[in-house]
Amino acid sequence: MKKNAPFVASFLIVGCWFVSFCTPSLVSAEMYVAGQAGVNFADRINSIAGTGPSAGIPDLEPAPNPDFDIQNSITFGAKVGYFPGHSWYGIEGEVFHSTPHIKQLDLGPGAQDPGIHMRVTTVGVNVIARYPGRTIQPYVGAGIGAAIAHIGDTATVRSDSAVAPAWNVLAGLRTFITPKIAVFGEYKYTGATLKFDGAYGDLGGFSGNYRAQHVLGGLSYHF
Question: CATH assignment of 29-222?
Answer without folding.
Answer: 2.40.160.20
